[in-house]
Amino acid sequence: MPSNRALRFLGLTSVCFCIIIIVSVTLYGTDAFPQTVILWTPKFSKPSGPEVIGLEDNPDATGSGIHTHPLDQLLAEAKDSLEQNLRTQAFTLQEAATQYRRRRGRYPPPGFDAWYHFASSTGAVIVEKFWDQIYHDLEPFREVAPSTLRQQAAAFHVGISIREGKVSAKGNNTAGKTSIWMHMLQTLAQQEHVQMPDIDILLNVNDEPSLIVPWDDIETAMSYARKLKLPPQDVLRVFPEYKDGLPFNYTFQPEWLGPRLTHPASIMGPRPYWELVRSACPPGSPARVAPKFIDIWHPKGHTSEAHQAINMFPLSTPKDTIQGYIKNWTTATDPCNFPHLQGLHGAFVRPEAMSACVKLFPQFGAGKMGVNNDILLPGTGEWKSTNHNPHEMEGETIAWEQRQNKLFWRGPDTGGHSTKINWQRMHRHRFVSMLNGSQVALAEKTFASGNKTLEGQSPARNFRLPISNPYRLATQGKGRLGKWVKTWADVAFTEISCDVWSTSKLCPYNAAYFGSLLAPTSIEEQRQYKYAAIIDGNGGDDGGNFTQVLNNGIVALRATVFRNWYDSRLWPWVHFVPMDNTFMDVYGIMQYFIGTDHDGHDAEARRIAESARDWSRRVLRKEDMLIYTYRLLLEYARMMHDERERLGWVEDLLAENGK
């Protein structure tokens, strides 16, 4: 029995608590107390039998004590991140300049006011983060003397010159990508408010990036990127006259490593591109720590069993994810974090073109990996689509309910040069195999073989199903995964390249796994589907397909090792669905959205599709490509001037000081 003293204490405590509640409600209303949050509980059917080894319930992702699907958390966090960034949107020139100084630690470049007036006149969303890629690309070049940059740009044979607002091609290189980029710059020069700086631009017209400088060299270069802020009155506010003269007999030819990157006097054949990738990764990164598997590139195919594609395919979920689903897009697309990609992605196994340079020079291109040092421009495919085929960007809307509840993909086997020896390592081949229900069903059957080395192995030996079922696939095991995949996967090659002569369009060494080829399709056909896959081809320029998919309100499942100009203005899980470069998470992603037994999240998919459509029509327009390019040209022009540390736009600060 409690004592009288204890009873009096409890009574007094209760009275005090009631008083606190009354006062709180009087002063603040019911908002003084948190609302009850009801979270969706996933309808997972937990399989029984040996296939559930290592399978556990989803952990509590929110700390609420209620188990949720990890994608619920990722979708919510991504939405919050977008909203937080939009709160920094600038609506005046002074706000834009303040955001610039805060994020960059420098004054904006001369002409910043003209840039802002052009951007605002188009109704652009002006968030300083949107231009992060420009500064990532340009900062290493502060180590190079401005005179050297000018001479390299003037002497290089492929490029564009801008003088007094007039855009012209260097020499006779006016075809292909050069002509499209020229048209983009000429269009920019004709816009109201635009004042183009005098500069020379070097162009990479190949499909793949060229510059891959060792990490140590970039670190040294970045040490020169000091952020100096002179007193505003000492700032040079107008670009000086451009010094474009060349020394007598000056020539510039980048030190290309050659089309095959050969080992000197070696019987091992081509030196792998991965060797250059590793050197461009930071010390301590997984790619630097893990060994280079040189037998992967043996010219006769003498590869150890451990390094076969089927055995390099990971069986556990990637790090820095939430139960295997991508949380950090920058981490997920950086090859330095995934050494197994040296044997599982065509860009590293055997690039189509292996022209590479390990020394900095200012070359512009459409796409690159995080380890590359090219300067990014909007892609020629995107620009061409917005100008010549505008209906592809914003076509007639098809009601969401009338679309097929399937994942669509068509394409050639690009992304690397495939051969009889290496095709099983190519990422596009693996994706098509993993979305082939018959191959998935056969992989499932090997679970029951009793042979541990064959468990979950696909017949093409380019992927395997992990027996632990880390993505909690309700259909895995019991022969139902392959059957389920057949209900929603519409994936096929349109072209397959062979390194041996064949009487058909298929290759004799892998025809059994890919069946017949299907005709290429247009964006009009993709509009019939709710989901579309975006898979790396050659380089980072996909011809504008990704932006077309977004503009047309299709849920894009995107996997890539490349970066593009627009990456800083798109949010994974809000505007597209990120996918691991092994595609290991594709089944889990599709289970969440389409479900297996009327338990999908179609409403969430529709929200992503509509968000992507509405957002891309605000930030991926033709005007936005021009705005990005204009800002890039101003920063590049400042980098090329001898007085670059003194150049800046400070009119708002001088006005505040009355000067």
TrEMBL record:
Residues 334-643 form the Glycosyl transferase CAP10 domain. Coiled coil: none annotated. GO terms for molecular function: transferase activity. Keywords: Membrane, Transferase, Transmembrane, Transmembrane helix. SMART domains: CAP10. InterPro entries: CAP10, O-Glucosyltr/Glycosyltrsf_90. The chain crosses the membrane at residues 7-29. The keyword NAD does not apply. This is Glycosyltransferase family 90 protein. It comes from Lophiostoma macrostomum CBS 122681.
